[in-house]
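User: Teach me something about this protein's shape.
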Amino acid sequence: MNYRLISYNTASLLAVAGLLVNQRVHRVSALAGLSSYDTMQDLLNDWTQTKPLLDAAAHGLSKDLETGLALADVRLLAPVPRPGAVFCAGANYADHIEEMRGVAKMPSTLTTEEIVGDAPWHFLKTPQSSVVGPGNRVSMPEGAKMFDWEIELVAVIGVQARNVSVERALDYVAGYTIGNDLSVRDKGTRHKVHASVPFRWDWIGHKCFDGSFPCGPCITPADQISEPQNLNLKLWVNDKLMQDSNTDKMIFNIAQQISHLSKHLTLNPGDLIATGTPAGVGAGRGISLAPGDQLRLEIEHIGELQHSIAA
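Assistant: First, the predicted structure itself:
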């Protein structure tokens, strides 16, 4: 039985985990065997135990069209409202590399390996200030002139991972969601610092402003996505299709990214790994997001994430 996991606000503004079956939302802690798991983090912290219970609950609710809340009646939050960490892969889609060659003024003779190296490359977003849920209005950072979008498939870690092999890496994934790695391209460097100085990069201004990672609307359990490396991704700005690609264009696949990160540090349940963005970003077109813009992101087998830029 297919189902989704969400986080939503109750009437008392508590952030609780929900099981979404047939467009009906059921509070997880009200389900059999799950009374002590009220939040998404609770579920992920004990994923090997809670996953079979969620499967059983979804099966029991598969023909129930009456109980629970209508999805339209709940306020969705980011699926993991307070992740432990948000890792974002940079330069990880072949089509995105090609569109950025001219923007970054890279020599045309450079090979893909000379651009991306021989291993995945990640940066961090702040887990509390950056992460927001569906329907949020993100304010443009002060002075931003090149405000850009980046649709990303996000892997949600469900089992603690340290020094894991590529072959086993996907065993540590609880599920997948959608993220938008909003970026201020013109704040990536400290302009008054000389180009030869290694301290000129500004990852806070570029990537870590408030609301820089809209995420959601749900988590699709990993065992419901048979081919995570073959998922269509699409992003629209004001109903104009901007990004239209597939996860098969990743340079380093999801398993390689998880394995690589786990060699450096321990990945914990609730950590998010945004796996890179394909071609179609604003920088490649010479355009920028503006106040009032409406964004819609869709990834196959997960759903649709919508948010806007505050007017």
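Now, about its shape. The chain is about 20% helix and 30% strand. The helical segments are 40-45, 47-61, 94-103, 112-116, 203-207, 254-264, 282-285. If you'd like, I can walk through any region in more detail.
User: That's plenty for now, thanks!
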